[in-house]
Write a structure and sequence with these properties.
This protein is an alpha/beta fold and 212 residues long. It has 2 domains: 2-45 and 101-211, Ribosomal Protein L4, Chain: A (3-Layer(aba) Sandwich); 46-96, no CATH class. It contains 6 helices and 6 strands, in the order E-E-H-H-E-H-E-H-E-H-E-H. A 6-stranded mixed beta sheet has the order 2-1-3-6-4-5. Helix 1 (30-43) crosses helix 2. It is elongated and about 95 Å long. The chain starts with a strand and ends with a helix.
């Protein structure tokens, strides 16, 4: 698979860059992607929803009227579910939605997400960025030069604080060091930008792992 390549100034380079086969084999495992994205979204839930049960609602200790002889239906408490101000039956209670995802499944999902972005032509390679000081205009001009619109994820070669600060105030732009972006982040993006040095390092590490 191939991808478009640009300079750090946003100028298109001649030809297309061949993506490393160790990372980009064209396989997109949709089942694993669904499993991981669902787990990530579940882990983001607070789980603080709460309703009062018969044990926690206040009042209603005595019967509202005697059992027989009134002509009305029998009632045991004015805090039963059918009464206004009564308890909620089978209502939500505080709980944790956290789901553990095996490391291998996470890596497979990330690789599938990378392949998905490469297959639909929304993956762009760029030379290593050098920003002397945080400046939002620098990132804006870069994105305009490479015609990156919509949600943009930029994967840098290691932590680059000035690049992160330059893009922090931009809506729809996410900067992550390579290896710290989740499969959800990659699928969220409309355009995925990767520094070439980060991809080369990752490809070398993947090759070393296969040799072991």
């Amino acid at each position: 698979m191939k991808a478009k390549a640009y300079t750090a100034a946003g100028k298109a380079r001649s030809g297309e860059f061949e993506l490393p086969g160790d990372l980009f084999d064209g396989t997109v495992n949709e089942a694993v992607l669904h499993q991981v994205v669902t787990a990530i979204q579940a882990n983001g839930r607070q789980g603080t929803h709460s309703t009062k049960t018969r044990q926690t609602v206040k009042g209603g200790k005595n019967k509202p009227w005697r059992q027989k002889g009134t002509g009305r239906a029998r009632q045991g408490s004015i805090r039963a579910a059918q009464w206004r101000g009564g308890a909620v039956i089978f209502g939500p209670q505080p709980r944790s939605y956290r789901t553990q995802i095996p490391k291998g499944i996470k890596q497979l999902a990330i690789r599938s997400a990378l392949n998905a972005r490469a297959l639909d032509g929304s993956l762009i390679l760029i030379e290593p960025l050098t920003v002397d000081a945080p400046r939002t205009k620098t990132i804006v001009e870069l994105l305009e030069s490479i015609e990156a619109t919509g949600n943009v994820v930029l994967l840098t070669d290691g932590l680059k604080r000035d690049v992160y600060l330059s893009a922090r105030n931009l809506s729809g732009v996410l900067v992550r060091p390579w290896g710290e972006a989740s499969a959800y982040d990659l699928l969220w993006s409309d355009v995925l930008i990767i520094e070439e040095s980060a991809l080369e390092t990752a490809a070398a590490e993947a090759g070393n792992e296969e040799d072991k």
